[in-house]
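Predict structure. Input: alpha-L-fucosidase, 464 residues.
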Amino acid sequence: MARIRNAFFALLCLTLQMINVKCVRYQPTWASLDARPIPSWYDEAKLGIFIHWGVFSVPSFSSEWFWWNWKGQATPAVIDFMTKNYKPDFTYADFAKEFNAEFFNPAQWTEAFEDSGAKYIVFVSKHHEGYTNWPSKYSFSWNSVDVGPNRDIVGELMNATRAKKSLRFGLYHSMYEWFHPLYLADKKTGFKTQDFVNKKTLPELYEIVNKYKPEVVWSDGDWEANDTYWRSKEYLAWLYNDSPVKDTVVVNDRWGKGISCNHGGVFTCGDRYNPGVLQKHKWVNAMTIDKYSWGFRRNAKLEDYLSIEELLQTFVITVSCGGNMLMNVGPPSHGHIAPIYAERLHQMGAWLKVNGEGIYSSKPWTFQNDTLTPGVWYTMKKNSSGAGVTVYAFTFDWPGSGTLSLAVPQASPSTVVTLLGFSGNLNYTTHKPKGIDIRVPVIPINKMPWVYAGSKQRTVGKKW
Ligand SMILES: *[C@@H]1O[C@H](CO)[C@@H](O)[C@H](O)[C@H]1NC(C)=O
Ligand SMILES: *[C@@H]1O[C@H](CO)[C@@H](O)[C@H](O)[C@H]1NC(C)=O
Ligand SMILES: *[C@@H]1O[C@H](CO)[C@@H](O)[C@H](O)[C@H]1NC(C)=O
Ligand SMILES: *[C@@H]1O[C@H](CO)[C@@H](O)[C@H](O)[C@H]1NC(C)=O
Ligand SMILES: *[C@@H]1O[C@H](CO)[C@@H](O)[C@H](O)[C@H]1NC(C)=O
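Output follows.
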């Protein structure tokens, strides 16, 4: 029977290939799964928005690791906070009753995300605390419909995201849960038993994909047990072969101890990974606007938030080296995005409106940064005609001398240098054998555009 089925399948495959339909069955092995090309939309998108929201947003102190910092590896600041402000019998679960989401308006969120120039979002469906932001069949009474907002947060956000043509919807999901009894029992056996995976992790992973069809499945919380324990390879084979998002889904690399940075889809390696050199494999810099936390912190100081200049520099270096940036927003438990986050989102979008040409769908160039002028980073695009390339140079400092000297671009008589957001060409002189001096426009300091850049066929960029 199996043989007949296989033969039939092979025949079907052949027929499909003749009419140019891709026909690959991925096997539950890393060799097979790693061979799947990452869907092209992802590399073109460059910027995504990460959103951390859950019961941890209620205490909104310390970080999204609040529960662990209280009851796991206890930290004095959190113990102190609980002793001073809560009755002794108060439990972490009690916080969920105060997760009201009273100002949560998903359309306002997606408006702000679209305005940032991001092309996709990755929303935390469940963090290590185990609370699901959707009415999961596998998280009885510890989900956003049974306690807290009484709303299907994931479903509402999915609808609002799909209403925006420019945004794709993705979900983060934590494999482990710090204090889940089944997880702790499996851990006790040295992960010889798999009750937690079979009854919780996997059913949830299938549920969110079948129900909400996320085009990013971002796994996390994998590091204590190996991929055999988590049954990750079997899940990924299903995701790539038979799931409703098989053709467009992008996954990360957190699928078991030792897997990150080695197998899976896009490599995340560590949090805030930004190697500053070209990477062989598609990667992502998952980072936060609040330097110290993914979840909202009520006691964050102004200087804890990255400035727009810092965000843009991180972004440009990331894209030059072949990465995407996944920039995190932590909304307060009431659900209205705080103005400091809203401002950063808007600033990213304002910059991208002028400079997005050198970012979206760009590729890393031969050189990532200039060898002469520090703080100059490059991207490139092949002209659609196939004739020539456009090199984009982004500079972090507006040259006070009025001349931007670049060592690596090689200008030819047909080279045209322009500045994004500035009409007309820029004058330049060339060096032998390589290099170019570009006269940048004299702009009064109070009229400085935020952005600029440089090139072989063209030169672009903008001051910030
Ligand atoms: C999402 O939209 C669909 C279609 O309009 C609707 O049936 C569904 O109830 C919405 N989901 C949520 C959680 O609002
Ligand atoms: C993975 O962990 C299991 C225990 O859950 C163990 O039996 C197995 O040998 C491990 N596999 C690898 C490849 O390390
Ligand atoms: C930029 O390029 C030079 C090589 O010219 C290299 O030495 C340097 O480390 C690179 N990175 C940064 C962050 O400047
Ligand atoms: C390359 O593309 C740019 C931008 O689209 C265009 O201005 C330029 O003329 C093109 N150059 C060539 C050689 O096709
Ligand atoms: C380029 O040089 C010409 C001749 O000196 C000058 O008129 C023009 O303003 C310059 N253009 C720019 C953009 O600086």
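The first strand starts at residue 47 and ends at 51.
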